[in-house]
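Worked example (supplementary).
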Amino acid sequence: MPTLDAKKTYKNLKKKGFEDSQNRSDDHKYLEFRHNGKVVLYTKISHGEKELGGSLIGQMKRQCKLEKSDFVDLANCPLSLDDYVVKLRAQGLFDTDE
Amino acid sequence: MIAFETKGLIDNDGFLTVEQPIALRNRKVRVLVLLPEDQENMEWLQAVSSNPAFDFLADEDETYSNKQASLAPEVIVSKTHTYTLFGPLRCLLEKEDDYHVMSCEILDLVGTGSTIEEAEQSFAEEFEYIYIRYNALLDDELTKRLQSIKTILNALVKKVDTHAHA
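After joint prediction of all chains, the assembly is encoded as:
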C-alpha cells in the first residue's frame, strides 16, 4: 500500500476546498468539505506523522467517497475540485435543490 | 427536522401500514424503520466477536477481501466518553488490504486500524466526532443527508458518560 505525505495531502485537500473543523483530537485534524455553505462530508488527517499509512488512507478515501486511485489523485492534485464535485454529485451527496 | 414515532406493520408484500393515523395531511415524509432485535439474532451478533469462525479477521496471513462479519455494539467507548445506545448499532467488520475496517452505513461512519481493536477504537473516535460536531452545527449548515444522520444519532444515544480521567 503506498503512503502519502501528510503535509502535502493536508495542503492539497485545503486547496480542493476542505476546511479545518473546529473539533480535533490529540493526534488528528478533522477537515470538512462544504458545498453551498453546507457540510457534505468530513475526513481526518494525522498531524503528528510524516506519512499517512494504508489504514488512514483507507479511512480517508471512504470518508471522501472516492476509490483509492481517485483519492490519491485528490491528495496529490490531479483530481480538480470541479471533478471532485462532479463525483460527489453523482453519488447524490448534495441536496437535490442545489 | 421533526420526528414522529408510531408503530406499524410490514405486510407480506412489503407495504408498511401504521397503527394510528398521523396528524399530517398531504405531506411527503421520510420513513425510518426500526426493527426489534429477536433473541436468536442478538445471540448470534454477540457471539461474532468471540466465535473462532471469525478468527480470520485477526489472522494477518490470508487474503480477506471478501470476508466480513457483523457487529452490533450497544455501547461506544471513546478515549473520553462512553455512549450508551438505546439499541444495538448494526456495523460491518471487514478486512481490506492489510488493515481492518469497521463501518456503519446508517451513520456513514468508518473506522480503520491494523487490528480489530484499533478499528473499533477508530470507529469510536469517529462516532464521537460526528456526535459532537453535528450537534454543534445548525441544521442549515448540514446537507439533508447529514441532518438525517444527526437525527438518527441523537435518537440512538441514550446516555453519555464522561470518563473519570477525561
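Two points are worth noting when inspecting this output. Chain A has one domain: 4-90. The mean pLDDT of chain A is 90.
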